[in-house]
Amino acid sequence: MIDFRPFYRQIATTELSAWLETLPLQLKNWEKQTHGDYAKWAKVVDFLPHLNADRIDLKSAVKSESDFPLADGERQRVIYHLKQLMPWRKGPYHLHGIHIDCEWRSDFKWERVLPHLAPLQDRLILDVGCGSGYHMWRMVGEGAKIVVGIDPTELFLCQFEAVRKLLNNDQRAHLIPLGIEAMQPLGVFDTVFSMGVLYHRKSPLDHLTQLKNQLTKGGELVLETLVVDGDANTVLVPADRYAKMKNVYFIPSVAALINWLEKCGFNNVRCVDVAPTTLEEQRKTDWLENESLIDFLDPTDHSRTIEGYPAPKRAVILANK
């Protein structure tokens, strides 16, 4: 099973030390009710060999390399273990000559977001709904002091720990398997990311308030979410599913989203990017057994979802506490 004690020791002398009042007990309770496959996934991480990387690039990719490439047999063994952790949603990863070609080209999103951010050097960062942690490693590559990701999905935790193991066990990023609603309001993070989460929340204003409660005064929120065209009163509430997702509740216009953030007390709220999701950014690969974007769109009109709603478009909003 995943051992969180190194994280506890690391934060004990930092601004995050107050989290130790609640976190160990929460994770102890979490371990009692994990997904039935969690033990199997955690064993996959254990079975992965310790491979020393001579070079690690987290600035332009998530990549590890060694002076001596893996023998074909060992390479196939590592691929076999990593494929036990499918589906791989967010990536890509290039680890010891193995290309994990994930469903999402998350590097596309990162390249859209990064130019607009306050510098991440020496920052304490929270990534809410971090998935397998791809963007967390890119944050480390920008010089972050500590990056904490939270996501309750056990498979993502095991994918993250597998990648960490192939990055020389880098301890600058940590994934904690909790939702933000379980976090006490720490108020210490310099930057808080919430990317691809808001539309899954039944109460979006509560989510925005929870994000604000984790930020230090003056800290920056990076919010990326689905949006629709329209004015400040335009919000799409799908009747049943949106792009085959049943847990999509509110998709606002950019103007409505800015209004929500200001209502929650954020300032300096600005939209820095709007981009449609393309078939190059989200697609089927050998590391994904499931359907992908092409299956979620109207086959005769890719500007609509299969249910007839506007096709996915995403905005990046920045705001300060």
From TrEMBL:
Gene3D superfamilies linked to this entry: Vaccinia Virus protein VP39
Any one Gene Ontology molecular-function term assigned to this protein's record: transferase activity, transferring alkyl or aryl (other than methyl) groups
CDD domains per record: AdoMet_MTases (cd02440)
Pfam families: Methyltransf_9
NCBIfam families named in the record: PRK15068.1, tRNA 5-methoxyuridine(34)/uridine 5-oxyacetic acid(34) synthase CmoB
Protein family membership: Belongs to the class I-like SAM-binding methyltransferase superfamily. CmoB family.
Assembly mode: Homotetramer.
Protein name: tRNA U34 carboxymethyltransferase
Species classification: Bacteria, Pseudomonadati, Pseudomonadota, Gammaproteobacteria, Pasteurellales
